[in-house]
Design a protein that fits this description.
Blueprint: H1 19-25, H2 30-52, H3 54-66, H4 72-104, H5 107-128, H6 130-135, E1 148-149, E2 152-153, H7 155-187, H8 195-226, H9 229-249, H10 276-284, H11 288-315, H12 318-325, H13 331-337, E3 342-343, E4 346-347, H14 355-380, H15 386-411, H16 418-421, H17 428-452, H18 458-479, H19 489-508
Antiparallel strand pairs: 1-2, 3-4
């Protein structure tokens, strides 16, 4: 029964064990990785670029000229609601992609479908900005002759609103599906004899995601301010097309694993070729072989459920971690807005500070993978386990919020001129800690989801990992309704994280890793 817990190469053939085949299986998949990393970076640029200005697109562009009867506050509330709905659709699509990839289409076909959704969706969104942007070459036009004729709205606004709605819906589905299954496809390019290279591939994948995110989070707002939304979303749509091109160029190089199979050619095993109807018929007639086969399947199902239960216990406390992590784009930005935002003569907007997170993650990933982890292994004589890395990341997140709380206390001192005496540079230590925590938790989480999931449910488990992030954002929105004094709110989150660290340690103390 031990083979049920062993991580087997879906493409390996025990009959072909000659040295030539072994050397071939150990060859690093350079071509596949180059295309996949390029696709991940450009896809991340498009996803982050779209989200960076999406709420502004609603409030200052689309709704402003298509919903003339709405007040400014009404448009603002509607924009926030639509943005949250869009994120919710994207997170839900992540889970559906896991089932599609594992049970129906396979990973690479599901990615093709997702890329098609993205290309169509972003193209429609780009066209929705065409009329306004071509008639007014400024970022925030005050008039729109196409939409208003003698004070009456024309049908151009309805068309653009429809294009934007359909485009955003398709983009949400496409992005949600890709974020759940891309990393699994990266890991599938390696055999089990390349275990170390496979684990490092998740780090490089996450690094390239942050490269794309860094370029878009800084570039998309500049394009919007310098030109208009048409130029901004044209670059986003172009990035999606480029990502799709990279993915298709690499198709001849990829290792494609069929859903629910153990072979690259999709050949079913004897167990898989039996239908439930045949099982029931054999059992009804007392066929001992059929009964034994059904019992074996039941044992396999029980084993799968035990593995999933252990994984869920690991993922559940991390919902609170993600709630803390995403506040660097909300409460931390609001904290920075009440500080001195100048380095000498250089103005640093508070909403630019989260970009330091991407820079720090790009630095920390190779530092941890190629120096700190090997140094601990060599000097201290033990290999850091995934749950130890995740636990350390949760501790770093709690400490980051302690620092944010201390800074908030200093800002709130009555006799301190916040904008004059408290420089925004004092936020850097908390950004350093939360970025270090991200590498420890996020990168390790992708490795953990891939290595600990049952072979036939790797995409589903990685989608569950993405869902923990979605639940974190939902929890953040819920707790935001609780009125906590501003000077104590960061300490409250740090305390909540500390409690969940203890809960996580208790739940996963005796976790047995799948070898």
């Amino acid at each position: 029964d031990r083979t049920m817990y062993e991580e087997r190469d879906p493409l390996s053939d025990p009959k072909k064990n000659d040295s030539k085949c072994k050397r071939k299986s150990e060859k690093y998949p350079w071509k596949a990785m180059v295309f996949l990393m390029a696709a991940a970076a450009t896809q991340s640029y498009a996803s982050s670029g779209l989200q960076a200005v999406l709420e502004l697109y609603f409030t200052t562009f689309l709704f402003k000229y298509t919903l003339q009867s709405f007040s400014t506050n009404g448009i603002s509330r509607l924009a926030t609601t639509c943005f949250n709905i869009w994120v919710g659709i994207m997170d839900t699509a992540a889970l559906s992609a896991g089932f599609l990839a594992d049970l129906l289409l396979g990973n690479y076909k599901t990615q093709i479908l997702s890329n098609i959704f993205n290309c169509i969706g972003l193209s429609l969104l780009m066209f929705s900005t065409w009329q306004l942007s071509t008639s007014n070459h400024v970022a925030f036009p005050t008039t729109h002759p196409h939409y208003l004729v003698n004070g009456t709205s024309t049908n151009h606004g309805t068309v653009d609103l429809t294009l934007a709605t359909v485009g955003l819906l398709l983009a949400a589905v496409g992005y949600g599906q890709l974020q759940a299954i891309q990393s699994v496809f990266v890991g599938d390019q390696f055999t089990d004899t390349q275990r170390e290279a496979k684990l490092h591939s998740f780090s490089w994948y996450y690094l390239f995601l942050n490269v794309g995110s860094l370029l878009s989070e800084s570039g998309a707002p500049i394009l919007r301010q310098t030109f208009n939304f048409l130029v901004c979303y044209s670059t986003v749509a172009g990035a999606v097309l480029l990502s799709t091109l990279f993915y298709f160029l690499g198709l001849p190089c990829y290792r494609k694993i069929s859903p629910g199979r153990n072979k690259e050619d999709g050949t079913a095993t004897n167990d898989e070729s039996k239908s439930l109807l045949e099982d029931a018929h054999g059992c009804a007639h007392g066929d001992s072989k059929q009964i034994s086969l059904v019992m074996s399947r039941c044992d396999k199902l029980k084993s799968t459920l035990r593995q999933l239960r252990g994984i869920i216990k690991v993922f559940t406390p991390l919902v609170v971690y993600w709630m803390l992590f995403y506040q660097q784009n909300s409460t931390w930005v609001l904290q920075g807005a009440r500080m001195n935002c100048y380095f000498d003569q250089l103005h640093v907007p508070p909403d630019l500070m989260p970009s330091f997170n991407d820079v720090l993650v790009i630095i920390f990933i190779p530092l941890l993978d190629y120096w700190i982890y090997p140094h601990i292994d060599r000097v201290m004589g033990f290999k850091v386990k995934p749950l130890q890395k995740i636990g350390a990341g949760m501790v770093c997140a709690a400490l980051a919020f302690v620092l944010a709380g201390l800074l908030e206390l200093y800002i709130e001192v009555p006799d301190v001129d916040c904008r004059g005496n408290v420089n925004i540079a004092w936020q850097l230590p908390q950004y350093i800690l939360i970025s270090f925590a991200e590498v420890l938790v996020a990168v390790t989480g992708l490795e953990f989801a891939y290595s600990q999931a049952p072979d036939h449910l790797r995409n589903v488990v990685t989608a569950m990992w993405c869902m923990s992030q979605a639940l974190g954002t939902a929890l953040m929105a819920g707790l935001a309704e609780i009125e906590i004094p501003r000077q104590w709110v960061f300490f409250f989150y740090a305390l909540l994280m500390s409690v969940l660290i203890a809960v996580s340690a208790g739940l996963n103390w005796n976790y047995k890793y799948r070898q």
